[in-house]
Amino acid sequence: MSLPIVAIVGAPNVGKSTLFNRIIGERQAIVDDQAGVTRDRLYGRATWLTRSFRLIDTGGIEIANTPFQDQIRAQVEIAIEEADVIIFLTDAKLGLTKDDRMIAKMLFQSQKPVVLVVNKSDNEELQLFVNEFYALGFGQPVTMAATHGIGVGDLLDEVVKKIPDAKDKTPDDDVIRFCVVGRPNVGKSSLVNAMLNQERVIVSDISGTTRDAIDTPFVRSGQNYEVIDTAGLLKRGRIYESVDKYAALRALSAIDRSDIVLLVIDADNGIIEQDKHVAGYAIESNKPIVIVVNKWDLITKDTSTMDEFTKKVRKEFKFLDYASIVYVSAKERTRISTVFAEIEAAYSSYNLRIGTSPLNDVIQDAQIVNPAPYFNKGRIKIYYANQVAIKPPTFVLFVNNPKHMHFSYTRYLENRLRETFELRGTPVKIICRERK
CATH top-level class for 5-162? Predict the structure, then answer.
């Protein structure tokens, strides 16, 4: 199920990034007293009253023709279009401004639910200026001081009230849903067409041809699948294309709705920094990942070419050591069957349930073969283990003291579980709890 999206919108220097950091609970956005520091949208995940949502921080919109203003406004338009709820942030110290009125017009045109917030209203003198914001037409504003956290809970209460109820139907158990992500022009749409064996998606050499996430159900060898092709570049006159920024929201939404993520990279151009950005979204999702190296037909090969490229992939994607790697040519439609084999293996691993007895046998044997190191003034002792969830497989280890678990020993145990139970392509979560 795709997470709802909440966008923070407002004029420069009204406190959007401060509020963003306060809600997601970490200093992810740059905060500065100088207006206009935030130029690109930032994304975070937040939870309030059991409702989870993605939060977007946007650059400040103003009438003045300041540097990057066209690009900032274009990105904000994307954020508004994608959002389910919009937080319209204003500033009590500045009062009602022409920029606020201009932004209000944009938000009325969007017809999206809006929560009006007056920031920096943390004393009685500034509270007197709140009433003038009624003129924006969004009803009673929420008063808040983001820097001190005052009123943030009231704001989130209002946001959660306006988040629409989930309309996604219950997924069919026999359908494997996978999405295809990657930077523009690596051949995502060509790969989808090759997997479908028909021209369902427009393919072009121009980056960003695919405008929306496209869900396509199909059957192969008796198995039901649904593929979600992602890109999300909006090719309109006002949009200044900064590829990974504009594609990110739809890619995140597609990842949320998928069982498996196919991360496509370009063999001909090699791995670049943007590939790592896209991989970061997939890793954050805790979904199984298959790395698909496309355009393999363009590479001059010898007996060691594939091994050398695999080493490069492992080096660049250090946190994806569990992901399988397949080499294909979407254009020539070769080796496509290897992708399906890895999808099915990853899906099986993602849903695998391990019996308590064999699980504990592996954990106990692992401790005998390789005793845990001395760490934080003690040595971890694992008494027993339970699997508590699937999607991904999640294991709770009941121990003497969780502080004694070194991260390297967690990785060792994870690798033993992967080897024993053939957990391919899926992340594995290990949680330590003190035995009472």
Answer: alpha beta
Which CATH architecture is the domain 175-349 placed in? 3-Layer(aba) Sandwich (3.40)
The model's pTM is 0.68
Total count of residues recorded for the chain = 436
Which CATH superfamily, name and number, covers 356-434?
Answer: K homology (KH) domain (3.30.300.20)
Please tell me the distance from the alpha carbon of residue 244 to that of residue 254, in angstroms, as a whole number.
15
Burial status of residue 97 (CB atoms within 10 A of its CB: 0-12, 13-18, 19 or more): middle
pLDDT per residue, tens digit, the chain (436 aa), is 567 889 999 888 899 888 988 888 754 443 444 443 333 446 777 888 888 888 888 776 766 665 556 666 776 777 788 789 999 999 998 899 998 998 999 899 999 999 999 998 877 776 777 889 999 999 999 999 998 889 999 999 999 999 988 655 455 668 999 999 887 788 888 898 899 886 554 444 544 444 344 578 888 888 999 888 665 333 333 333 443 444 566 677 788 889 999 999 999 988 888 788 778 877 888 899 999 999 999 999 899 999 999 999 999 998 899 999 999 999 999 999 999 999 999 999 999 999 999 999 999 999 999 999 999 999 999 999 999 999 999 999 999 999 999 999 999 999 999 999 999 999 999 999 998 7
b/e code 38-55 from CB counts within 10 Å (16+ = b):
bbbbbbbebebeeeebbb
CATH 3.30.300.20 segments of the chain: 356-434
For 401-435, letters b (16+ CB in 10 Å) and e give beebbeeebbebbbebbbeebebbbbbbebebeee
Cα 92–Cα 93–Cα 99 angle in degrees, nearest 5: 75
CB-CB contact of 9 with 103 (8 Å): yes
